[in-house]
What we know:
By secondary structure, the chain is α/β, with parallel strands linked by helices. The protein folds into 2 domains: 10-75, Chemotaxis receptor methyltransferase CheR, N-terminal domain (Chemotaxis Receptor Methyltransferase Cher, domain 1); 87-276, Rossmann fold. The protein is built from 10 helices and 10 strands. The chain has helices spanning 10-24, 33-47, 52-61, 66-75, 87-104, 122-136, 152-160, 173-179, 195-198, 232-245; strands at 111-115, 143-149, 162-164, 180-182, 190-193, 201-205, 218-222, 246-253, 268-271, 274-276. The strands form 2 sheets. It has a 7-stranded mixed sheet. A 3-stranded antiparallel sheet has the order 3-5-4. Helix 2 (33-47) packs antiparallel against helix 4 (66-75) and helix 5 packs across helix 6 (122-136). It is globular and about 60 Å long. The chain starts with 9 loop residues before the first helix and ends with a strand.
Amino acid sequence: MVFNSAKLTDPQFAKFSALIYAKCGIHLKAEKKELLNARLGKRLRATGIDTFKAYYEYVTNDVSGGELVHLIDSVSTNFTSFFRESAHFDYMTSAVLPNYLAENRGKGQGLTIWSAACSSGEEPYTLAMVMEDFVANNPGMQYRIRGTDISTKVLAQARQAVYPEERVAKVPPLFLKRFFQKGVGKSAGFVRVKEQLRRKVSFERFNLMDDMPCQEPLDIIFCRNVMIYFNSATQQALVDKFYRCLAPGGHLFIGHSESLTSIKHKFAQVASTAYRK
């Protein structure tokens, strides 16, 4: 098939932008038109559809919702790394976890952590390493980590837990030895998170625009470098949801490039881009 080489028009960009915003809250500014053109072009080639108009009709008429998932996968930004913005993990070990331990000692409660928009798993696995290191000095402390993302593609990578060696450059050497297996043969140049750590983290697809999946109060939420893709109304709604999901004394961590200054909230700021309920 010869594909139509026409560019995404302004009206078409507006329609796709409105659909993406309605379904997952991502606000695409006008300067993202060429980026969307390129990424939608890949979906046209994958589906065998030759025009943006026909692809829009295909997505909106697909009752299974499967192509919508692929569309959102294609526009999601999934940059992440191990120990990204490491000051947050330092604050966890120096303040958050000792306080939690003091307040909950002897109660038999487990710490619940949610890594929202976890991408390919580096953040929740980093959290697991931090927790395992802390637990080694505080035996008996229990915890659970839940990673969610809207992209099925990156969640598959997270569950596989295999990464190129250059992706673990920021992992402390002792952690690298303790928590990773080095690939050999065909897997040379890659590492995999060891099973003992993988068991500490569960992954599932979740859209932050949906009702929160918190069946019980959470202790820590990481939602970093995500709200920058949302407009102010969506940011406000999301922060309100996070506040409701957290247990009293629970913590919310956002990205260093983000701020809650323009949002009405009840959190107390306790460190740079770290907040407590």
